[in-house]
Design goal:
- This protein is mainly beta.
- It folds into 4 domains: 5-159 and 254-402, Galactose oxidase/kelch, beta-propeller (Methylamine Dehydrogenase, Chain H), CATH 2.130.10; 421-506, Immunoglobulins (Immunoglobulin-like, Sandwich), CATH 2.60.40.10; 514-610, Immunoglobulin-like (Sandwich); 612-708, Immunoglobulins (Immunoglobulin-like).
- The strands form 14 sheets. A 7-stranded antiparallel β-sheet has the order 1-6-5-4-3-36-37, with no helix packed on it. Strands 13, 14, 15, 16 and 17 form a 5-stranded antiparallel β-sheet that branches. Strands 33-42-41-35-38 form a 5-stranded mixed β-sheet, with no helix packed on it.
- A hairpin with a 5-residue loop joins strand 13 and strand 14.
- It is elongated, with a radius of gyration of 37 Å.
Length: 709
């Protein structure tokens, strides 16, 4: 790769100088509106696609940069790089340095996502201009080596696709023009290490760069620009194509869409706001609560100006900066230079309001971008309403939280140390001398922005407790709340002032090979001097293949036990045989079956009841005339802790008779009445009857005589 390094002034120094020379009126408003400044160096390529990397640098990808080969001064083809003012670069906000790279294919109008390991996935691009055909090529940029590496191609091309990170770390690609210029209606999933999935064709045709958001339930919400919102379930690859309809009747083309911050206080209720779009543009917004029983778009606050090709950036304090755009698409004479801050309405709980965020200096239209930086400022760049030229100046927005009431710099909390990686639902420690004053802890996902949309833009608030000099913070509950990857960790004090962020990697807990053990039946009842058996089954998980041995504890005195087989490998079952002696005391015993493989031990419990019951019947003989009925009383007496349900049968009855027991069963001890009914033609005679009682795996019987006259 070829590169060129631009050594520039630090924008932090520029910020300090500006604080010293701006007029008092401007300074006094800084804690309300924030402040804008322009960096003292230029962007050497058209910043069409940008991503904040985990090392704090910004990857900028232009490809051919909306400069077709048919136009004078534009790249005639690959390579795209410093020699033809195209390609890609890294911008270091802290050092003010820019390093340029060459590209072997045209990544213009791709979709970009940041993988779990911090690498950038560049999905698709441009084969040709006018008409546009989409690339099927895919590349990965590694910030550790500053190299682009091609990976497996998609099934078909994508120009203007949206890519979205799912809760399991896969990247979903949707829409874009394919290699023949038709809209690609297939969903594909990219998995690191195994590449692209098969295609899943949608039952509808999306617009280009569709606005997609991952919801806490794992589904993907389509918020526009079309008027009918939709829902995709990655687990079933099915669509619900009619979730809600927008109030604005036009398509919000190149307006934007933001998933508002997810917080544990409201059970991570997902709300999405859409704003601006269309040409002539609208200044309206709409909000939908996707946790509502019947989600519906509700009118939101109006921005100060109508905007198409705008940007919206979530800030650490939960507000969102709306900036740039114009009334008419790609028309600088109608540029929207007044920025807005979306935040809670102090006079209307649960509602939002826009307030002024001051004015930026340059028109930011088509191909403009905005990113939140780790110092909690916003970087604004680009704007390319006409081919072959773009806004080279870059601006920095310092939000109001960075200023005190006099316009001076606010005192910021600081992070002394934090772990480099965190996992779902687990606690971690953040060292800070400002622990007592911390009011909020938030994660903001590293941004990837293009074409008026922050793909994967996400803020998640975390619960925490404060100690002296540290915070104990609990990680997000799962990947649907915070997909795997890199985030900026901010601490905010009670005044809403954020720290400078530290990068943390959200990683799933890697499941280790393991197994479980279960035993059936849960209980056996035997009299002393007899035996019984149970089955112990081992089920592996996460590739477990070890040898598992068995043991049992809790046997009563006089009892012995054996396992056959004594061990299993990976999975399988073993029979536990238990034998008691005549001297084994009656009682109920909990047996613990232990299954052990190396350092892993799991247990299952069963119950052994050493008990019995006896049965008797009275009278020993009954005489009944034909056509009449008679009864016997059958008694069950528990011996020891016997408490099983005992049911009854009788045999030996002649024909033309019937019998019934009331009650039909007895738990433990008790009596039941056996009623025998004869018919007029029942044969006379003496009949020995056998009454059987069965319960708890035991059967006993007694006999009586029935005399029929």
């Amino acid at each position: 790769m070829r590169r060129r390094v631009y050594l520039c002034l630090r924008h932090t120094l520029a910020f300090s100088l500006l604080l010293g020379i701006w007029a008092p009126k401007t300074m006094a408003q800084a804690n309300v509106q924030g402040q804008w400044s322009t960096l003292p160096y230029l962007m050497p390529i058209n910043p069409v696609h940008v991503a904040l990397l985990s090392n704090g640098k910004v990857l900028v990808v232009a490809g051919s940069g909306n400069c077709p080969p048919s136009q004078a001064g534009c790249p005639s083809g690959p390579p795209y790089g410093p020699s033809n003012n195209s390609g890609a670069l890294l911008w270091d906000p802290n050092a003010g340095a820019i390093s340029q790279f060459s590209l072997s294919w045209d990544m213009f109008c791709n979709g970009m996502a940041l993988l779990q390991d911090g690498r950038a996935l560049i999905d698709g691009g441009t084969i040709k201009y006018d008409p546009f055909y989409g690339q099927s090529n895919v590349a990965v940029f590694d910030p550790a080596t500053n190299l682009f590496t091609n990976v497996q191609n998609m099934a078909h091309g994508r120009w203007y696709p949206t890519v979205l990170t799912l809760g399991d770390g896969r990247v979903m690609a949707f829409s874009g023009l394919n290699e023949t210029g038709a809209t690609n209606t297939a969903v594909e999933f990219y998995t690191v290490g195994s590449g692209w999935s098969t295609q899943y064709i949608a039952p509808w045709t999306p617009d280009l760069y569709p606005r997609l958001h991952l919801l806490p339930n794992g589904k993907v919400f389509y918020s526009g620009a079309q008027t009918t919102s939709k829902l995709f379930d990655p687990s079933t690859t099915t669509w619900n194509t009619n979730i809600a309809s927008t109030n604005y009747s036009g398509t919000r083309t190149y307006g934007t869409s933001v998933l508002l911050p997810l917080t544990p206080a409201n059970n991570y209720d997902p709300q999405v706001i859409i704003m601006g779009g269309h040409s002539p543009a609208t200044n309206t917004s709409e909000i939908i609560d996707l946790a509502a029983p019947t989600p519906a778009w509700q009118s939101g606050p109006n921005m100060s100006e109508a905007r198409i090709e705008m940007n919206a950036v979530i800030l650490p304090d939960g507000r969102a900066l709306a900036v740039g755009g114009s009334v008419n698409d790609e028309d600088t004479t109608t540029a929207s230079l007044n920025a807005d801050l979306l935040g809670p309405d102090p006079n209307n709980p649960g509602k939002y309001i826009f307030s002024s965020a001051g004015a930026n200096a340059y028109p930011r239209l088509y191909h403009s971008v905005a990113l939140l930086l780790p110092d909690a400022t916003v970087w604004l760049a680009g704007g390319n309403p006409s081919r072959g030229s773009y806004v080279q100046q870059m601006e920095i927005y310092q939000p109001p939280y960075l200023f005190n009431s006099t316009g001076g710099a606010a005192i910021r909390p600081s992070i002394t140390s934090a772990p480099s990686s965190i996992s779902y639902g687990n606690a971690f420690t953040v060292q800070t001398p400002d622990a007592a004053s911390i009011n909020r802890v938030v994660l903001v996902r590293n941004g990837t922005v293009t074409h008026a949309f922050g793909m994967d833009q996400r803020e998640v608030e975390l619960s925490f407790t404060a100690q002296s000099g540290s915070l104990t913070v609990t990680g997000p509950p799962n990947g649907n709340i915070a997909p795997p990857g890199y985030y900026m960790l901010f601490l905010l004090n009670s005044s809403g002032v954020p720290s400078v962020a530290t990068f943390v990697q959200m990683v799933p807990v890697v499941a280790q090979p393991d197994f479980s053990v279960a035993a059936t039946p849960s209980s056996r009842t035997i009299p002393p001097g007899t035996g019984t058996s149970y089955s112990a089954s081992v089920t592996p998980s996460n590739g477990f293949s070890g040898n598992v041995t068995f043991s049992v504890s809790g046997l009563p005195s006089g009892a012995t036990a054996t396992f056959s087989p004594s061990s299993v490998t990976g999975s399988g079952s073993s029979t536990l045989s238990v034998n008691t002696s005549s001297s084994t005391p009656a009682g109920s015993y909990t047996l613990t079956i232990s299954a052990t493989s190396g350092s892993l031990t799991h247990t299952a419990q069963v119950t052994l009841v050493v008990a019995d019951f006896s049965i008797s019947a009275s009278p020993s003989s009954q005489t009944v005339n034909r056509g009449s009925k008679t009864t016997f009383t059958v008694s069950v007496t528990a011996m020891g802790p016997f408490s099983a349900a005992v049911s009854f049968t009788v045999s030996g009855l002649p024909t033309r008779t019937s019998s019934s027991f009331s009650p039909t069963s007895i738990a433990g001890s008790g009596n039941t009445t056996l009623t025998i009914s004869t018919k007029p033609r029942t044969a006379t005679g003496t009949y020995p009857l056998t009454i059987k009682a069965t319960g708890g795996g035991l059967t006993h019987s007694t006999t009586v005589n029935l005399v029929i006259k």
